[in-house]
From TrEMBL:
Pathway where it operates: Cofactor biosynthesis; biotin biosynthesis; 7,8-diaminononanoate from 8-amino-7-oxononanoate (SAM route): step 1/1
Chain ranges passing through the membrane: none
Gene3D superfamilies: Aspartate Aminotransferase, domain 1, Type I PLP-dependent aspartate aminotransferase-like (Major domain)
Protein name per Swiss-Prot or TrEMBL: Adenosylmethionine-8-amino-7-oxononanoate aminotransferase
Site label Participates in the substrate recognition with KAPA and in a stacking interaction with the adenine ring of SAM, positions: 20
Purpose of the protein: Catalyzes the transfer of the alpha-amino group from S-adenosyl-L-methionine (SAM) to 7-keto-8-aminopelargonic acid (KAPA) to form 7,8-diaminopelargonic acid (DAPA). It is the only aminotransferase known to utilize SAM as an amino donor.
Cell location: Cytoplasm
Biological source species: Salinimicrobium sediminis
Length: 426
């Protein structure tokens, strides 16, 4: 093997198949060799500010020593054990810590491996809840442009996408609602009333407050609250997909805290393990758990992944929560929020900036330029930011920031400057 003369990007091409990539159209993958705090370093030594926390995971900074040292110590103690019939301290301690910060109605935690399985479990909980109670409810409800993951249940409840065309015949039955944006709240509520009258709806899954993959679409808390209230009155199980919004990004630990009606089920992943290891949790209220608690074996939730509640991932998650709830990290979150507010205030009157919005450390706007004029605008924007040493990943013409909380003022400024340059260039 002639590996020494080849770059990592070159070696990558031979055997690797990357996610969300049409390899015939895509160029080489950028090889990242090191990360620290808010920075990523590629194989040529160039550094990038990680403006999206590596898909909203590394919110306390990459290779955070507080977290890595705890996980390293756990590695010497217990690496992995079956979680069916067995338990361990990291999972127990994590459950105690997580329940402390979750909305007060949440009581039980079910582990899986990623955001898609977290929502998959949430969907199964809602469907089997009604099945166990003998209710004939087999339809799910979701927002039109939501994103809940790439497994079959998760794809089914996600908004229809050209990428999922091959699978649509195999989807679960899902009804869709537009998001309540304020002015249409009454219409959406009426639409839900009509759907309830016509269908046997088991559960409603939604991304509270912000739809991430749809382009950081922020919507109306009051409108959502009214929908959740109507669901509750009609015995529809509500599932908050907090995979993206969880753990401080909205300025609160969970976006559900903006709502009066607490969801029956909450899905968590991404920042749960602070960017260190893959893991997910689906939490639920007593009401859900009790519908499975029975002398009949078949009423249990027979879902289980091999690495359920992996002790290392639990340790990372526990350390992450310790950081999140510290005064220091809350200070960083507030600093980020204030910094974004100033930048947004300066930028929102710019003629090319449309729909500037912010919730917590998430800042987003649309670049109002003729898309055709710039060919593939999204790819050109991405290339611009990377050249500037800033990792932002625009969604269409939506530019958004969701940087690690520990991103320094100088690093935030570097992100802002790269955006200002983009406004000049495009
Ligand atoms: C990323 C995401 C998922 C899927 O999580 P994966 O870990 O990528 O499977 C589900 N829901 C939301 C809201 C997400 O942002």
């Amino acid at each position: 093997m002639k590996t020494e003369t080849q770059t990592l990007s070159q070696r990558d091409r031979k055997h690797l198949w990357h996610p969300l990539t049409q390899h015939k159209l895509a160029g080489d993958m950028l090889a990242i060799v090191r990360a620290k705090g808010a920075l990523l370093y590629d194989e040529s030594g160039k550094e990038y500010v990680d403006g999206i926390s590596s898909w909203y995971t590394a919110v306390y900074g990459h290779c955070n020593e507080f977290i890595t040292s705890k996980v390293a110590a756990q590695m010497q103690q217990l690496d992995q054990v079956v979680f069916s019939g067995f338990t361990h301290e990291p999972a127990i301690a994590l459950s105690e810590a997580l329940i402390q910060i979750l909305p007060s109605n949440q009581e039980k935690l079910f582990f899986s491996d990623n955001g898609s399985t977290a929502t998959e479990v949430g969907i199964k909980m809602a469907l089997q809840y009604h099945h166990n109670l003998g209710n004939d409810r087999k339809v799910l409800l979701a927002f039109e442009e939501g994103f809940h993951g790439d497994t079959f249940g998760a794809m089914s409840v996600s908004g229809l996408s050209v990428y999922n065309g091959a699978f649509e015949d195999h989807f679960l039955k899902v009804l869709r609602l537009p998001i309540p944006a304020g002015e249409n709240n009454a219409d959406v509520l009426l639409k839900l009333r009509n759907l309830i009258a016509e269908h046997q709806i088991a559960g409603f899954i939604f991304e509270p407050m912000v739809q991430g993959a749809a382009g950081m679409k922020m919507y109306n808390a009051e409108g959502l609250n009214d929908l959740l209230k109507l669901c509750r009155e009609n015995h529809i199980i509500t599932i908050a997909d907090e995979v993206m919004t969880g753990f401080g990004k909205t300025g609160k630990n969970f976006a559900s805290e903006f709502l009066e009606v607490q969801p029956d089920i909450i899905c968590m992943s991404k920042a749960l393990t602070a960017g260190l290891l893959p893991m997910a949790v689906t939490s639920c209220s007593r009401k859900i758990y009790d519908a499975f608690y029975s002398e009949e074996l078949s009423k249990g939730l027979f879902h289980g992944h091999t690495y359920t509640a992996n002790p290392l991932a639990c340790t990372a998650a526990l350390a992450g929560i310790e950081l999140l709830t510290s005064a220091e990290m809350q200070g960083h979150i507030e600093r980020n929020i204030a910094s974004h507010q100033i930048f947004a205030g300066q930028l929102k009157r710019h003629p090319k900036v449309k729909n500037m919005r912010q919730l917590g450390v998430i800042l987003a706007f649309e670049l109002d330029v003729e898309m055709e004029r710039y060919g593939n605008l999204r790819n050109r924007l991405f290339a611009h930011f990377m050249k500037e040493g800033v990792f932002l990943r625009p969604l269409g013409n939506t530019i958004y920031i969701s940087a690690p909380y520990i991103t320094s003022d100088d690093q935030l400024q570097k992100i802002y400057t790269s955006i200002e340059k983009a406004l000049e260039k495009f």
